[in-house]
Specification:
The structure is a homodimer. By secondary structure, chain A is an alpha/beta fold. Chain A contains eleven helices and eleven strands. A five-stranded parallel β-sheet of chain A has the order 2-1-3-4-5, sandwiched between helices. In chain A, strands 7-6-8-9 form a four-stranded parallel β-sheet, sandwiched between helices. The termini of chain A are far apart. The interface between A and B is large, with 53 and 54 residues. Chain A binds a DNA duplex through α2 and α4.
Chain lengths: 348, 348
DNA sequence: TTGAAAGCGCTAACAC
DNA sequence: GTGTTAGCGCTTTCAA
């Protein structure tokens, strides 16, 4: 069915909805109706239009659609420019959830240390055009509230007060709960106290784990040893481990992520302190490698997908039905994975 | 409906370029000129316009701009929905390169196993509006050429014939070279031959490593043992390791990524075969943990950033100056990182 | 150097 | 059910 003369309205190449309309013998508006699955189109017309669209290889022009409707049907994510398991997994979860909600995804990474990081990223997204924004793994560097945000914002893992207006959040209590479980596990094993190898405290993720550890110790009236700081990397875990190994009172350590835990174990072992016989170590994340390092790592599993999905549910709701309230789902259950890096303290 | 002193043209809330124009006392077109850094605007007018824009908190409307200009200034990435170190690192590299080129980034993940995966993802991106497409970590599932692509495509790590039209590629030879270096290292140590724990062969990444291994063996006239297949996961490496451990002729293994290598080491060790004394193992990627597992892992480092940057240079060029040819840069140098998992074969 | 007019390709509001 | 008429907020073209 090749049309004799120009099927396209212009020489432009790609077909427009008018072209589809002409071929189907209907008005342009009807094409729009069909393509948007609007009601009040007879099945027969719908068929014709779809066939015509298919034949021409027609594709909706998103720019025009956005301009006319004021809606972009896309969601922007402010992410961290890192391949760390946590942030990367979260991003993948977000992508899936966004796609399931039939939105497009725009991504802007923040450069750590750049003060205007999140603010600038949000600005960029707003300029590109998004109906909502996700701030994944927020880092607190001060003045985020300064951005003028005219769309709903979802903050993952931090209270929504983190940003100014119309914000929702998900997964806020999760990390703290997991950290408490991790610490509790060590105490249950009989350790007098638990040391903490913390993540950077500008990260909410770092703070939450620290707080969970504190809470767990406080709940049992245990003393709280000095915190050792790391930067999420195995290297920093290793460095911290050299210090901790020298302190014979250390019998249990909760590391804020698995990478640091693995570096820590390495340092302890090199220093002649056996894991778990002399020192027990718990990680955080349950990276796929955790089961295969030696000793295999006891850790807690982060529910990235659940958090991303729940967050997106709230965000999409805030975008599409701003006035109706929605009850947030309950936090997903805590998963502690006990492996070989933890044991009861050896009797001395 | 217009408020008497209204700064905004409508009650809409967000200011338009007309509003800026009015405030600055110039035409709307002049505002456009200033904001696009076009020439032929007096410094004085430029100042006034910028001040007015700032005062109103004006932000360009991307949709309108796209519609009018036909350019989207965004690039779409087809990525894998995985937090695996390789793909995730590559994605981060792409994001950085895209941002540096002053494009926006749209991301669509493919679901592994979904036959229409890449094709569908490309379609989605085209519909959303992109000036170019990056296919990161391509998987060969057949009919990709079937998509009608009217924009330039960049394929990372696979020849550009992988897709139909106007395609460029980067990092094609890299993986093979690295694999050859990894295998060569083991042969240099004196091993008679090297076994290969391969990645899935639908992945170009998997094939390239296999080929590099083959080439290295062939170059020295060594026999080529049967390949063991894995799926990139430590679990699959572990499973493969149980088999390999049972074969006393195995003295050296090249694993297609570090995760599998670590699983492999674990299985070997459990079976009583010491690494590196009895069996040497080389990985691929140089994940941050590689230096901290025990034994620390000898591996080759993937130049994700270099590949992403070079690829984007080519892509942006193809978008902006389609007719001018560009010479691709040389592949980045091979980096072999020798650690404790490899040694000369023990004399028997 | 600046401005006026004419679209870009679609959706919205309303007629028929 | 279907069509008509206006724009959405920019860039482009052309005139001044």
């Amino acid at each position: 069915m090749t049309t004799p003369v120009a099927a396209q309205s212009k020489g432009s190449g790609t077909p427009r909805s008018v072209d589809v309309a002409r071929l189907a013998g209907v008005s342009q508006k009807t094409v729009s109706r069909v393509l948007n699955n609007e009601p009040y189109v007879s099945a027969e017309v719908r068929q014709r239009v779809l066939a015509a669209a298919e034949e021409l290889g027609y594709r909706l022009n998103n720019a025009a659609r956005m301009l006319a409707s004021g809606r972009t049907r896309s969601i922007g994510v402010v992410s961290l420019g890192t391949a760390l398991f946590g942030p990367a997994s979260l991003l993948m979860g977000i992508e899936r959830a966004v796609r399931d909600a039939e939105y497009a995804l725009r991504v802007v990474n923040t450069v750590e240390g750049d003060a205007s990081g999140i603010t600038g990223a949000v600005d960029t997204l707003l300029e590109q055009g998004v109906d909502g924004i996700v701030i994944s793994e927020p880092i607190d560097e001060g003045h985020v509230a300064a951005v003028r945000v005219e769309v709903p914002v979802l903050v993952l893992g931090a209270p929504s007060e983190f940003v100014a207006s119309r914000a929702v959040s998900a997964g806020v209590g999760v990390a703290e709960q997991l950290a408490r479980a991790a610490t509790g596990h060590l105490l249950d094993l009989g350790h007098q106290t638990v040391h903490h190898l913390a993540g950077p405290q500008q990260w909410y993720a770092g703070r939450d784990r620290l707080r969970g550890w504190q809470t767990a110790l406080a709940a049992r009236g245990r003393q709280q040893p000095a915190v050792v700081m790391g930067d999420w990397s195995a290297a920093s875990g290793y460095a911290a481990g050299r210090g901790l190994a020298a302190d014979p009172s250390v019998t249990a350590v909760f590391a804020a992520n698995d990478d640091m835990a693995i570096g820590l174990v390495r340092a302890l072992t090199e220093a002649g302190r056996r894991v778990p016989e002399d020192v027990s170590v718990v990680g955080f994340d349950d990276i796929p490698l955790a089961a295969y390092v030696t000793p295999s790592l006891t850790t807690v599993r982060q529910p990235f997908d659940a958090v991303a999905r729940e967050g997106l549910r709230l965000l999409v709701h805030a975008i599409e039905k701003p006035d109706v309230d929605l009850t947030p789902a309950n936090d997903p259950p805590v998963e502690l994975v006990v492996r070989d890096s933890t044991a009861a303290p050896s009797s001395r």
